[in-house]
Amino acid sequence: MAPSLENLPQYIHDAVARIAPEQGFTPGQFKISFEVGSGKGDGFAADMFRARITEDGRELVVLCKVPPVNEARRQHFGATIIYEREFEAYSKFLPAIFEFQRERGVTEELGEGFFNVPKCYLAYFEAEKEETAILMEDLRLRGYRMWNKMIPVDYEHVKLLMVQLGRLHAVSFAMKDQRPEIFEPFKVSDPFSMMVDGNEPVMGMIQTSFERAIGLLNPEDKLLPKLLAFKSTLFQDLKDLMNPALCEPYAVLGHGDCWINNMIFSYKNGTPSDIVLLDWQICRYVSPALDLLYFIFCCTDGEFRRKHYDDMIRTYHQSLSQLLQKLGGDSARQFPYPVLLRQLGQHGRFGLLMAACLTPMLVSESRDLPDMEQLAERFEETRTMTLEVKTDETERRYRKRMGEVLRDVAAFGENAKAAEGLGVRTLLLYACGLCEVYVWDV
Asked: Which domain of life is it from (predicted)?
């Protein structure tokens, strides 16, 4: 079931009406209509609506991101912290990032910095009223398209992301070093860990997803005891992995929710030419490795990792180094390549856990996904919640995709002692921090 227009709160109408005059529409003369902007299974914690502002043949289409209209879904999947965080991202963090770059001569026109977010018309948040809305440009009207989440992402699309993540993280290193007083408010806690803590439905889904993933292993698999040990301390480990104290002085403001449905691409002659990062609800001050691990383990497959992992990590770090230098910094001092590899190894379990949670959605047709509103309402009665979709084809895709993640961990781990000379692929040799051999070859 898609979000409904029937109970759309009045404050959302008011928010759209507020920006209309700012965009050249005449007060009292324009009209506003709404339509659903997202489909079944598109998100846990927000609804999307499309607002059309019209006047005398002129039209402006605005995407409105708001908390779930459904009360049960808002109660179990919504969290004030994530709405406030996205408000802060669009009203404070991202504008400061853009301004810092411009001050150092890096502008949108040069195509060298990080400016790859949608235009935001309004970021609104009122905690006491429990009201929040992000009004932004609908990039699809300019030809941007989303990747099909069911297909593992290919080389050219991943490369675009690695370049932009490198640039995003580079600005953090530059601001921390040169303008620490401006960067200090960027050191925000992780909203995901705060949202999970004590949230019975979310914790239950994470636990169930992880159990389902490790259930793919044979009982004699050498990896199984380590994964079972990880399971016993799962939520504390998750908090630790997102604790910036474990990676200082190398923590950055990361995107936080770096999977394929939170980015959109433009194309030239059929080739991806640009990427825009969406959904900043979980931006957080953490290890830069988390964004990389989240995406690579969730959104690529085993064949891609075997062929291109080295290249992608080097592309990321090269992009970071190039922008950091333009901003007056030095990656050799502020974020050396061996430190990146170490961060990836120390935080690798995060990638495995996110893959366990997200893969069921990635391999499912939208029509086969459970209805989030019904799921939330059913939890009121059963106190259980799972995203598992029981169709044969979905199960086949799940076992292949998740099995490749587990095989990467197991196969590369068993060959760790023979790993010298393999370069950055070392990450996969001790992927998820579950293997004891660390090999640095940079």
From this structure: Eukaryota
Task: State residue 222 phi and psi, 5-degree precision.
Answer: -65, -25
Measured over the CA atoms of residue 380, residue 386, residue 392 and residue 394, the dihedral's sign is positive
The answer to whether 284 and 188 are in contact (CB under 8 A) is yes
Residue 340, amino acid:
L
Q: Give mean pLDDT, residues 161-188.
A: 97
Is the bond preceding residue 249 a cis peptide, omega within 30 degrees? yes
User: Which residues neighbour 264 within 8 Å (Cβ) at sequence distance 6 or greater?
Assistant: 139, 140, 144, 145, 146, 275, 276, 278
Provide the token pair at 390: 């029981």
Q: What is the mean pLDDT of the chain?
A: 86
Where residue 302 sits, what CATH number does that domain have?
3.90.1200
Residue 338 makes CB contacts below 8 A (sequence gap 6+) with: 440, 442
pLDDT tens digits, residue range 35-51?
987 655 555 678 899 99
Residue 387 has pLDDT above 60, yes or no: no
Q: 46-55, 162-171, 364-373: which range is least confident on average?
A: 364-373
User: Does residue 335 fall inside a structural domain?
Assistant: yes
Q: Name residues whose C-beta falls within 8 Å of residue 284's C-beta, 6 or more positions apart in sequence.
A: 85, 188, 189, 190, 191, 192, 242, 253, 254, 256
Structural domain includes residue 224: yes
Tokens for 392? 């044969």
- Domain membership of residue 92 (yes or no) is no
85-117 per-position pLDDT tens digit: 999 999 999 999 999 999 999 999 988 999 999
Domain that holds residue 370: 143-416
Mean pLDDT is lowest, of 87-101, 186-200, 266-280, for 186-200
d(CA 322, CA 164): 12
What token pair was written down for 404? Answer: 């490749």
Number of alpha carbons in the 13 Å side-chain half-sphere of residue 234? 20
Q: Which residues pair with 31 in a beta bridge?
A: 54
CB neighbourhood size of 291 (10 A): 25
**Cα–Cα separations (whole angstroms), residue 66 to 55, 96, 302, 315:** 25, 24, 36, 35
Coil, helix or strand at residue 338: helix
